[in-house]
Specification:
Helix content is 47%, strand content 15%. With 451 residues, the chain is an alpha/beta fold. It folds into four domains: 128 residues, 3-Layer(aba) Sandwich (Rossmann fold); 163 residues, 3-Layer(aba) Sandwich (Rossmann fold); 76 residues, Orthogonal Bundle (Helicase, Ruva Protein, domain 3); 42 residues, Arc Repressor Mutant, subunit A (Orthogonal Bundle). The strands form six sheets. It has a five-stranded parallel sheet with strand order 2-1-3-6-7, with helices on both faces. Strands 9-12-15-8-16 form a five-stranded parallel sheet. A hairpin with an 8-residue loop joins strand 13 and strand 14. The structure holds adenosine-5'-triphosphate (ATP) and magnesium ion.
């Protein structure tokens, strides 16, 4: 989308020559008087206004105030034929971006307009970032060197510079959002915005406002123009998170938007076209949802041009140590605590857990431990309840299931192994814990080849 520049000047010659000079880079409109411009601003938005200090009988300063009242982020460049310093100072006080003295130097004007566009963008960025900061934390880099993660990195690499839509799937807490952000950050759109939309959290009647934005006055309470997420993401990436949780009637609206990448903000009269890359994510099984008619198959095929499946943590337990190191470092900094690391037993227990909540759960366990621990090494005693109970049986099985499907010998061997480990190899304590004689324990150790 080209930035919109409006020229308000009663001299047709000025309007025509400026329009000619600007129209290559900007969407230009000219007005011989302020009234129609102000009227149109009710329905359309504009980034920069070049405003004459005297438009016929109209006073440019009054127009400036009205423009700013309508859209406080609009950048207004005053043009004056009189070089009257007094009015120019007054204009700056009322929020003009700058003022230029006629006759205008076109090169200089182009520089100021470019700066004004940037200024407006930054202003919006601030608004957007303060929103984003409130709604989500900062982004960490992706940790993990396991083979399944290498495959993910390979995909990110191949996807980053193409514009194809991407669907990221994977269980909750596996890092789908991190992957989406990584695709954006590594690719050619990295200097533009990465706009997150949580599709599960948008009330049905607000979807259009959220995606497409609105004009001031479009409804009660709309006191400012507000750009929708699609417009904010122009030239960047829009991340449609939790896409599987979007109600089916909204799915069709979204599909329509994705098909033509055109939309009209509520209360506006102009259609806007955007260039956005779409990345969607879900932890749902969309194929199954399609079968149940809860997800539109046409939307699915539009989003799933490329698929990235983020593996569950239990499929890449070899990444656990690196993740632990990363999170412990993060938490000790945040909590200003000196945490030395994990005891051997604690580390071992983390390696033998199946993490239904994936990386998020591991982070939560370690955060809990970091809070509870007085400092120094973190032990099993610092873990939350679910981790203190031993779960050394195969993934996804209950203790009951494990016991029913394992030979007594095997159960015995594992009980001895685990107790020895807990007691750091001390045999008398182990025999005591297991309720057998020391002699009996030694026999078993030999029998099973433990040491
Ligand atoms: N590989 C990783 N390296 C570092 N941190 C990670 C990794 N994967 C996930 N995390 C962290 O775990 C948390 C959950 O990740 P994220 O929000 O990306 O998961 P998700 O797959 O989007 O989950 P959900 O489906 O619940 O939305 C975040 O705090 C994220 O920073
Ligand atoms: Mg997520």
């Amino acid at each position: 989308m080209k930035p919109h520049v409006w020229i308000i000047d009663d001299e047709p010659g000025i309007c025509a020559s400026l329009s000619l000079a600007l129209k290559k880079e900007y969407e230009v409109r000219t007005f011989g008087s302020a009234v129609p411009a102000l009227a149109l601003l009710e329905r359309e938005s504009c980034d920069v206004v070049l405003l004459d200090l005297k438009i016929g009988s109209e006073n440019g300063l009054d127009v400036l105030k009205q423009l700013k009242a309508n859209d406080s982020h609009i950048a207004v460049i005053m043009m004056t034929a009189y070089g009257s310093i007094g009015s120019s100072v007054e204009a700056m006080k009322n929020g003009a971006f700058t003022y230029l003295i006629k006759p205008l130097d076109i090169d200089e004007l182009l520089i100021f307009i470019a700066q004004a566009v940037e200024f407006r963008k930054l202003n919006e960025q601030v608004l957007y970032l303060s929103d984003a900061l409130r709604s989500q934390g900062h982004y960490d880099k992706i940790i993990g060197e396991s083979e399944p993660m290498q495959r993910v990195y390979g995909l990110i690499d191949r996807l980053k510079d193409v514009d194809a839509n991407v669907l990221i799937t994977g269980e909750s807490g596996t890092g789908k959002e991190l992957v989406a952000k990584a695709i954006h950050d590594a690719g050619k759109r990295r200097n533009e915005r990465f706009v997150v939309v949580n599709c599960a959290a948008i009330p049905e009647n607000l979807l259009e406002l959220e995606f497409f934005g609105y004009k001031r006055g479009a409804f009660t309470g709309a006191s400012q123009d507000r750009k929708g997420k699609f417009e904010l993401a122009d030239r960047g990436t829009i991340f449609l998170d939790e896409i599987g949780d979007m109600p089916i009637n909204l799915q069709s609206k979204l599909l329509r938007m994705l098909q033509n990448k055109e939309f009209t903000p509520l209360g506006a009269s102009d259609t806007r076209h955007v260039d956005v890359r779409v990345i969607a994510a879900t932890n749902r099984d969309l194929k199954a949802m399609i079968a149940e008619q809860k997800f539109r198959d046409d939307l699915y095929y539009r989003l799933n041009v490329m698929n990235v499946r983020v593996p569950a943590l239990r499929e890449r337990l070899s990444d656990v140590p690196l993740l632990c190191e990363h999170f412990l470092k993060q938490f000790s900094t945040e909590m200003n605590k000196s945490i030395g690391g994990l005891s051997a037993e604690a580390a071992e227990r983390l390696m033998h857990y199946d993490y239904p909540g994936n990386v998020r759960q591991l982070a939560n366990i370690l955060e809990y431990a970091a809070i509870v621990s007085p400092g120094g090494m973190i032990g099993v005693k610092d873990f939350p309840e679910e981790m203190r109970v031993r779960t050394e049986h195969s993934e996804g099985q209950s203790v009951e299931e494990y016991l029913c499907s394992t030979t007594l010998k095997d159960i015995e061997r594992r009980a001895i192994e685990a107790t020895l480990r807990k007691n750091n190899g001390r045999r008398d304590q182990t025999a005591l814990d297991l309720g057998i004689s020391k002699r009996g324990l030694l026999n078993k150790i030999n029998e099973y080849g433990l040491s």
